[in-house]
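PROTEIN–LIGAND DATA SHEET

This sheet pairs a single protein chain with one bound small molecule, zinc ion, given as SMILES. Inputs appear in the order they were entered. The predicted three-dimensional arrangement of chain and ligand is reported afterwards as a token string under its own label.
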Amino acid sequence: MKRKNILTLILAGFFLIIVVLVIVLKDNNPLPEYNDEVTDSVAVVPPPKAPLYGLEIDTLIVFNGEVKSGDSFGKLAGEAGLPTSAIYNIAAKIEAVFDVRKIKAGNRFTLLKGENSQTPSFFVYEESLLEYYVVSLKDSVYALKGERLKTIKEKHVYGVISSSLSQTLNNHTLTNKLSGIYAWTIDFFRIQKGDSIAVIYDEIFIDDSIYAGVGEIKAVRFKHYGNDYYAFNYTDPSGESEFYDETGKSLRKAFLKAPLEYSRISSRFTMRRFHPVQKRWKAHLGTDYAAPRGTPILSTADGVIEKAGYTSGNGNYVKVRHNSVYSTQYLHMSRIASVSKKGNRVRQGDVIGYVGSTGLATGPHVCYRFWKNGKQIDPFGEKLPDANPIKEEYKEAFMAYIKDPMARLNDE
Ligand SMILES: [Zn+2]
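PREDICTION REPORTED AS:
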């Protein structure tokens, strides 16, 4: 269809030229006299190069490269001809804006050099597709952070789940964000065939063409076991953003459903199970989540670190006190995060340690223990407190706001 249109356009164009020619030729005006004089040939001036990273690069030679493992600012600048003493001074001078030790292998860099110069004038480091640092290496040494022009395009996707959410959406970041939004509402390991999802979200592009990732998720409709679970991203007039359902209830709970972003329950809370290490029947007062070693463990609610240490049974563990009623405990960590020091405050979702198999454990997992009034309980059997719903004074504005996205989500 597109190709046909283009062809039609070209044909129409030709036709127009012929018509114009016929008119011109029919014109009675004499043709201009033929001028035999040789005119000066016009010098071919290359068009000015478009600025790069905000720099005028007409007189500069550009070298592009990728930071390899073992590369540093010093090494790259040194190889480009900058003396070691200068490198040291520059790094120190720009540290507040750009810490050159943060250069990572795999990222792009650019060196710009004057045509007759032995040493480079600028070093540019691309921190991400969107952000970069420009370091002026000569005369006045400085560094500044730049951001490429980004455009945001709203996208609407719909899919019926056949095996998993990630396979249906085929977008890792989007899947991650959605599993975060629905962390308490939907068990992603119990998604069934025929569940469906509709999402309205933003995609970020650089210079209108280069895909740079998922932006804000605006509205979601998750059909799960025949029920609709809506999520509307709403910023209230006081500037607070949150995901709410269609009645204005927060999708967040006081507690996350699991202490890992992606997790599989390998053993549930039970008064009787065969202990895999001790080889005897005993109560299991926790929920085990199997995950690869090193997976971040998240505090499931806001709180204060009550204990962080090691015992032969628990291995490395952290206990968080949330209020006078609830505490949670996380066992078998490979490593305790530095924030997990007794007395430190943590927020829901903060990384407090990493999955391991220290203590009495057969494989990498986190044993999640839930304490209520000093007794260990099964959080899945509890009605746990909700996070705050939309404030009453914003309820009307919220209900008006969700009308349009809701209609669009229901369109599927
Ligand atoms: Zn356990």
